Amino acid sequence: MTTPTETVVAGQQAESKTFPPLTRTDFVKYQGASGDFHPLHHDDTFARETGFPSVFSVGMLQAGMLASYVTDWLGVENLRRFKIRFADKVWPGDELTCSAVVVDTYEAEDGRRARVELVCARQNGVKALVGDAEFLID
């Protein structure tokens, strides 16, 4: 449910959301949708031969999860900027928790905006993605 944007204030936190454990099938389904078929994301033998313990997620999969989480909160129609940085790999079985907090509100040329800090963390607390977004809140 989208939060009415006129009630958005600095310090406000969205209710965090934890996604079910990711599977290799999730990785492959995302690869099919994105067209990125690098074997590091679906071929265990290749991943191990390359020095990784297993396949790992394409980072844009969790970026999409984080984007849908925050736009469910403040409305995709209000999104003006979305920026992320990949911080750690995501492995099969990882449960990701997304969180967001409004760090600032300010006047912009197109109206009042909120700047929101974003985190997508693995079940061990390690941040897989960090970022920020801006939303129109007028």
TrEMBL record:
Family label: Belongs to the enoyl-CoA hydratase/isomerase family.
InterPro entries: HotDog_dom_sf (IPR029069), MaoC-like_dom (IPR002539)
SUPFAM superfamilies associated with the record: Thioesterase/thiol ester dehydrase-isomerase (SSF54637)
Name of the protein described by the UniProt record: MaoC/PaaZ C-terminal domain-containing protein
Organism for this UniProt entry: Rhodococcus qingshengii
MaoC-like domain segment(s): 12-107
A Pfam family per the record: MaoC_dehydratas
Coiled coil ranges: none
